[in-house]
Amino acid sequence: METMTFPRYSPDDIISYLRSHILQGAEARNLVKGDVFGSPRLDVLHMIYLRILQKVCGIRLEHAYMMPLNVDIMYPQIYEGFLPVCNLYIHMERLLPMCRISDFQIADVLNPKTKRTVRFLSGILNFVNFREFRREAYLELQLNYKSAMEKNQHLEAVNREATLKLEKLNTVPVEHEAEIRQLTENIRELEQLLRQEYRRKQTALQEVTSQKKTYIAERTQKLNECKVSLAALKEEQAQLKSQIVESPEEGKKYNKQMKETIEKLKRSKQEVTAKYERYRDVVEVLPSCQMELQLCQKKMEIQGENVERLAVVTSEARNLEDQLDNAQLELKKANTDETCLKRVVTAKHEKLATAGAQLKKMQEDIEQHKCTVLEHFNEVQEKRGAVYDKVMTIRKEIKQKKDKIEQLKNDAEEKATKAKEIHLILKAVLDKCHESLLKAVKTSEASRAEKIDEIREGLLSIQSSGDAS
């Protein structure tokens, strides 16, 4: 038997709670008991789970239709129909362990059963109620925490102001430093005077106390001497009393007392003799009394044995009565157990009959579900075939493009090698041109220098001819 960690709600209570707290507007108005229990509608049940996740976990509606970013899937269009169901199952599997439910399965989303959905919804509603209750308490605690923090900040500000004031009070202003120094000197002088007076009074008191102690010691010594003398006087008084002779009046009083005691003794002797005579008569009668007592003792012993036998018989009778009562109770219990067992057997037969009917219905439902699943599978296979054809064509195009890219790479490499060769050739040609240009520059410089020399010589010759004329 499963351990119940939360109360089980009835379907009517669950529907009323869903209408009033979970769903809103047209969704709450159009919700019917048959949409969730019995033969439930999957879209309605999924919508209820989504609304619960929105309220409790803050999951938005678009999260149910989004592919996870950390999953690398090549063709996500294949998962379009199954993605919302898978996301719903993942989120519900995270929520339900908080509701003390640990046996949620994917079949409870695809093919829900009435008892399991009632248990799941009961646990969820219990968790929602608990969440609302604790949320109110948490908000109260948050408000109290805010007020406490404000008070703490206010007290800290007051404490800072007080510390500043204390620092101001402790710090001596420059104006009053001279007065404070003078006051401290005066206080020190007064303390010295007080100490001197205290010491003087202390020495005077010590002298007085020493004098009093000596006086007390002398007085105690005198008192001890007086006690010793008093004890000696008492001993002498006792000795003197023993030596004193008694007077004749005291002797007469003593004789009278002795006579009175003698008379008392005679009276007591007479009383004792009278009592003795009485006891003697009683002793003479005692043997007959002893015989009677022995007879009475025998009768008492017989009566005691009879009483013991009667007690044993009564205890046996009580035991038999108890056994009879127990047997009657056991008979009643057996009769009640027999009736209960008959009822249980009839109830089990009825349950077996209903279970057989439910099994037949379940088999029919399973067959219908198999047919629908097969149809859905065939549709998915057809879609998959079409997607497969598209994928194959795309792969062929990708291969063609890859081949073209490789050809272009090869052409580019060939062109690069040719360009390198041309670059090397051009570089060599340029080097040769540079060398030829350098040679031409050198030759032109030499010819230029020669021409300049020739021009100078010509000019000099012309100048010299002009001077001669």
Automatic annotation (TrEMBL):
Localization of this protein: Chromosome, Centromere, Kinetochore; Nucleus
Pfam families, A to Z: Nuf2
Gene3D superfamilies assigned to the protein according to its UniProt record, in alphabetical order: Ncd80 complex, Nuf2 subunit
Origin superkingdom: Eukaryota
GO molecular function: microtubule binding; protein-containing complex binding
Keyword DNA damage: no
The protein's name: NUF2 component of NDC80 kinetochore complex
Organism of derivation: Taeniopygia guttata (Zebra finch)
